Each structure stands twice: as structure tokens, then as C-alpha cells.
Amino acid sequence: MSYRFHPGAKTDLHDAIAFYVRQAGRSVAARFVDAVERAAELVAERPEIGRQTGEGRRSVPVRGFPYSLIYRQTDSEILILVVRHQNRSPKHGQDRK
Description:
Helix content: 25-40%
CATH architecture: 2-Layer Sandwich
Number of helices: 2
Order of helices and strands: EHHEEEE
Shape: globular
Number of domains: 1
Strand order of the largest sheet: 1-5-4-3-2
Largest sheet: 5 strands, mixed
Distance between the termini: 19 Å
Strand content: 25-35%
Number of strands: 5
CATH class: Alpha Beta
Radius of gyration: 13 Å
């Protein structure tokens, strides 16, 4: 199964990358991107792996970083709705469909 990022999740991801570039450097930012891609690929291979969060959504942690991917499965793909920092409000991105 394939995956894609909701436009809001793309914004979340770009904001996190910019933060890591500013605070920790490009190499840490690149490791973050790799970890997000690995988590997304894992979800695409095994959609049931994430913890159910309600409303047909699931959450999977991004290994090595304090982020989670919030996603839902459609008939044809995995839609990543939110790239959420673990200290951010659980309601962040809740309205994304």
C-alpha cells in the first residue's frame, strides 16, 4: 500500500525539519526525515501496527524523535494526517480528514 501526507501534515513536517536545522543542524534534520520515512513505510506495509486513537485514526511513534504520525487507512492508501510533536496538544490536526 502507498502513503501520502495531508497538506497539513506536510506543513507539520516542514516546520519540524526547519526547527531541527536551526537547533541541531542539517544532519539531525536529515535523520529526522529518514525516521519519518521509515515510520510511514512501516505503516504502509502494516497499517494495523499503530495504536488506535479513535475516529478511524491510528498513531505510530517516529523512532528516535519525540514525534508521532497520525494516520488513517483508505481503500487505496495510507493518509498521514498529522506529524505531531508528543508535547503538542492532542487536538492538533484533529479536524483533518
